Amino acid sequence: MNAKAGALPDINVDEFRKVVRSRRSIRRFKDEPIPQEILNDCLELATLAPNSSNLQPWEFFVVKTPELKAKLADACLGQNAAKTAPLLIAIVARPDTWRDHARLALEEWPETKMPSIVDKYYRKIAPIHYNQGPFGVFGAAKKAIGLVAGLSRPVPRGPYSVNEMKIWATKSTALAAENLMLALRAHGYDSCPMEGFDECRVKKLLKLPRKGLVTMVLAAGKRAEDGVYNQQYRFDQSRFVHYL
């Protein structure tokens, strides 16, 4: 183990299991606010999620103002979760911030000496890897080169287009969203990730960045007694888990 990382803390897997198993998509919430210090901690834990190249392609727009929250709930198709939650969080993927974040990765490196491989990656490799160029011409060229090079050796396959960059950002943002939901549950609060919303209206209402992608709108708060609609179940693991 890397000595710089320090000793690992003791982990109680039973407590973690309780957090995961008790997390449910809550459809009705109590009229009880989440304390700001708890919300801050949950958002910090969200941003500790693993993400591609540590470029952190996400943003969180926390809506607490009653009037704005009511309008956002309407844009979420009037779902009970959206209408009853004390706050709503628009979780937005940012496929367009990689360049600024590559620069920040160099400026905010936390150790005294930066490894040359890190410096090279953010200064030279990332600008080539993620840049799609005007009208996607760089991406198309990289894809052609990758197809030829890939005939003889393993090569990274993309992102090769603006759409693939959207997928790239959304994958990391979804990991952060899961961290946020588990953090809320660990603090005794609950959430409901909603995909049912009018993205155009949400972006206009919250004045979101033009290239931002609303991955989900998260309702958060204390679950009401009738907040869980059905018993939880999952299909048999044999359908999904494959040992090779």
UniProtKB/TrEMBL annotation:
Keywords: Oxidoreductase. Residues 20-222 form the Nitroreductase domain. It comes from the Bacteria. It holds the Pfam family Nitroreductase. InterPro entries: Nitroreductase, Nitroreductase-like. Belongs to the nitroreductase family. This is Nitroreductase family protein. The lineage of its organism: Bacteria, Pseudomonadati, Pseudomonadota, Gammaproteobacteria, Pseudomonadales.
